């Protein structure tokens, strides 16, 4: 149903995602309605497809953002700490911040300074985004996402927005007990799957392979 979800406006896009069963909860619907994708996507902002944003990076399709939010929603409660790896344009970081109560924090990590700067600029376009940055409820950090960001953890929820070659152990280590990670894994774009990693209260880890996807790789910053 994803290919039918494009809209002529942000509201149209989100409503189509709801109608097609890709957004299931009211919380996710309201969080995505409150963030205009056009602030973060330079072209075809309301198409339900990934778009190039520069620096060899993309903004994921809205249906994938919706899927990630729905998966992580139960872990976005009081005092939640959230890590958004490969935060790119900053769009999903903003949506996740809308899902977290005012006492929570969302940290966006990217390995390219230009994307960190872009995300900060994009978020500052709206009053709500500016407030999130000013209050430090949202922070953008330059770091190697494969190693997570230990200084801000542990995390109730981790979202990874690029395909990891494997389930990197530092990310699992930085989950709270309980905590959940939503991560695409696969060494090439034809063998990638979303994995949901749950760390239980007793520290045991459950790994579930969900569905096939195609993401850019989680890798080093490009040269030059």
Features:
two-stranded antiparallel ribbon; 9 strands; alpha/beta
**Total helix count?**
7
Q: What's the gyration radius in Å?
A: 16 Å
Helix content: 25-40%
Structural class: alpha/beta
Q: What is the averaged pLDDT score?
A: 92
Description of the molecule:
By secondary structure, this protein is of the alpha/beta class. 28% of the residues lie in helices and 25% in strands. It is built from 7 helices and 9 strands, in the order ααββαβαβααββαβββ. The protein has helices at 10-19, 26-33, 62-72, 91-99, 113-123, 127-134, 169-173; strands at residues 51-54, 57-59, 81-85, 105-110, 138-142, 155-160, 175-185, 192-199, 205-213. It is globular, with a radius of gyration of 16 Å. The model has no long low-confidence stretch (mean pLDDT 92).
Layout of helices and strands:
Blueprint: H1 10-19, H2 26-33, E1 51-54, E2 57-59, H3 62-72, E3 81-85, H4 91-99, E4 105-110, H5 113-123, H6 127-134, E5 138-142, E6 155-160, H7 169-173, E7 175-185, E8 192-199, E9 205-213
Parallel strand pairs: 3-4, 3-6, 4-5, 6-7
Antiparallel strand pairs: 1-2, 7-8, 8-9
Can you give me a brief rundown of this structure?
With 224 residues, the protein is of the alpha/beta class.
